[in-house]
Amino acid sequence: MEQTLIEDLVVESIKIYGIDTMYLPRTLGAKDDLLNEDDLGTYNDAYEAEMYVKNVDGFEGEGDFLSKFGLQIRDSITLTIAMRTYETEVGVHTEINRPREGDIIYLPLNKKMFVIQHVEHEAIFYQIGSLQTYDLRCELYEYSGERFSTGYPYLDDRFKDENLFIDSGGTTFNVEVRNSVFHMVDSDKRGDLISTPKLEANVDEKIIFDQSHSSNTGWPLRIYTTTSPNSGTEITAGVVVTGTPGNVGANVTWTPATTGTYYYINPTTIGMGETVTVAASKLQSVELFDSIADNTTIESFADNIVDFSQNNPFGEDNF
Q1: What is the rounded distance in angstroms from the CA atom of residue 105 to the CA atom of residue 102?
Q2: 295 — phi, psi (to 5°)?
Q3: Residue closest to 234 by CA, chosen among 195, 266, 271
Q4: In this structure, are residues 1 and 80 in contact, taking their beta carbons and an 8 Å threshold?
Q5: Domain membership flag for residue 208
Q6: CATH number of the domain that 191 lies in?
Q7: What is the domain range of residue 192?
Q8: How far is CA 32 from CA 39, 41, 250, 286, in A?
Q9: Shared-domain flag, residues 104 and 132
Q10: What would the pLDDT profile of 184-219 be if each residue is shown by its tens digit?
C-alpha cells in the first residue's frame, strides 16, 4: 500500500512539474555483433510521455566550443521518468521493458533531440523496498543517417535536407483504383489514400508501384514521357513489370536513369495519372544537396596523386 502511494505521488509530481516529451525507441537495422553497434538504426514510432528535467539551471556537458572540426555543441541533460509512466505510455506498445541507450527524447522546450547515453534505475534507492523512476542521462543528438518514420512530420522531416542516404529497398506506393483514378499511399500506410499524387524521385532510386489490390484489375500502370499514351513514349529502360494487376505480387518497379519529368499513367485511358519528377542522384551530385561538400573537388585532386589503375597504388610493385 505504501509503495503504491509513493509511486502515485511520484507520477503526479512529474505530471505537475515536468514537461511533455516525445520518446522515440530505436529499431536495430544491421547490428554489428563484433563492434556492438548499428549503422542502420531507424525510429518508426514516437510516444508522448511526461518527464522531469533534473538540471533546472541549464544544460550540462561541455557546452559550445570551437574544435578542429568546427563548432561543437555538447549539451547534456538528465531527465526523470516514472517507471509506471514508461510502462503505460511506451512499454505497452513495444517489447522493451525499460528505456534503452540509443533511444531518442524530443524536448519541445528547445525543439532538439537528445539521445539516451545511460539509464540509471537506482537514482532513488529502494524507498520502502521499491523503485519508482528512471534517470535518463542524455546528450544532444548528432544525425548520422538514421531513418525517421514516426508519422509526425516535425520529427520525420527534421533532417530531410541533411539525409544523403539512399534506401536500397526503394520507396513502395500501394495503388488502388477508384472511379477510374489511381489512388496511392506510401508503404508505411500512416496516411490516407491520395488521388493521383505528384511524386518525386532521384536518379538510381527505386520506385515500386504495388498493384496487388483487387481494384487494379484491368488497370495496368506504366511510365510514359507524357500524360497521353498516344503522344508520348513508354519508358521501358529500368522498368520491371511483375505479375498481373489485381493479383498478389503485381508490381511495377522503376529505377530512373535520367532526370526529368515523367508520368505514371494507364496506357488505355487518357488523363489517368500524374507526374513523377526525377532529380539528380544524391550519390553522384552530393554538392547539389550539401553546399559545403567537396567530394568532386577532392576526388579530382586525388586522381593526380594516387594512380588508381594499379591494384596496389601504395606499393612499389603492381601486384
Answers
A1: 10
A2: -55, -50
A3: 266
A4: no
A5: yes
A6: 2.60.40.420
A7: 171-279
A8: 8, 12, 35, 27
A9: yes
A10: 876 555 556 788 888 988 888 899 999 999 999 999
